[in-house]
Design brief:
single chain; 85 residues; alpha+beta; 4 helices; 15% strand; Type II toxin-antitoxin system Phd/YefM family antitoxin; YefM-like_sf
Length: 85
């Protein structure tokens, strides 16, 4: 993941946003602090954000754990495209 300062982000804003949106790149924008470690933000695509939100929902509701357990115990023929919908 590449790291940028706010100044570099402003200079290349359209190009960097296009890379995040179209190439699914992630980038960090650092914010310098007078004392202590620098803070920052991470830029991710809208699609990646939606995936993370869905994963968070599945984890919070316990659904992810159920699915993972079922996948571990999978037998041939348990999952097929015809029964999926």
């Amino acid at each position: 993941m590449q790291t940028y300062t706010p100044t570099n982000l402003r200079k290349h804003l359209f190009d960097l946003l296009s890379r995040v949106a179209n190439k699914d790149e992630e980038m960090e924008i650092t914010i310098q602090q007078p004392d202590g470690p620098n803070k920052g933000v991470i830029l991710i695509s809208k699609e990646r954000y939606a995936q993370l939100e869905e994963l968070d929902f599945l984890e919070r509701t316990g659904t992810l754990e159920v699915v993972m357990k079922r996948m571990e115990a999978e037998q041939p023929g348990d999952f097929n495209e015809d029964d999926a919908y």
